[in-house]
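for the recovery benchmark. tokens below, seq after
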């Protein structure tokens, strides 16, 4: 149960706005983790810079773990007694990488839309990763745009 940082009232909704005092509570790293997977297949709307970079950090953590698993599977291949474990480990790793790419692409799409550009620009990520990430450093449009209201936090 999340409470308001200003008045300690229980927050009734997901937008972080306290209904009692009107305070806008910042999104936390763990809250971003929950939203990261809760909104995996939601490509519409907008997210703030803070929420996106928390999602990016979670993606980096997952990528590091999956990279370590990849290295482990290569090492296992060199050990004759257990080399048969390398293929299942590599398959699990590949599936996990694919599954974990979807929430990141969703967050990237919403962040690009926050800048007023079409979320379809996320497809550039598969050609050149840097171009869509440049949009993520930009400020979102003030007020509402055609993709929704300005994210509160």
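predicted aa per position
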């Amino acid at each position: 149960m999340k409470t308001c940082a200003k008045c300690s009232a229980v927050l009734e909704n997901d937008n972080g706005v306290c209904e009692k005092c009107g305070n806008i509570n910042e999104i936390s790293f763990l809250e971003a983790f929950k939203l990261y997977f809760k909104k995996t297949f939601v490509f519409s709307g907008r997210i703030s810079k803070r929420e996106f970079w928390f999602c990016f950090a979670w993606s980096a953590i997952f990528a590091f773990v999956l990279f370590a698993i990849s290295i482990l599977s290569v090492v296992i291949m060199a050990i004759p007694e257990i080399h048969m474990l390398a293929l299942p480990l590599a398959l699990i790793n590949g599936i996990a990488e694919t599954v974990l790419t979807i929430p990141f692409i969703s967050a990237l799409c919403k962040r690009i839309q926050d800048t007023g550009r079409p979320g379809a620009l996320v497809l550039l990520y598969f050609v050149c990763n840097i171009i869509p990430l440049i949009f993520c450093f930009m400020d979102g449009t003030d007020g509402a745009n055609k993709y929704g209201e300005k994210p509160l936090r």
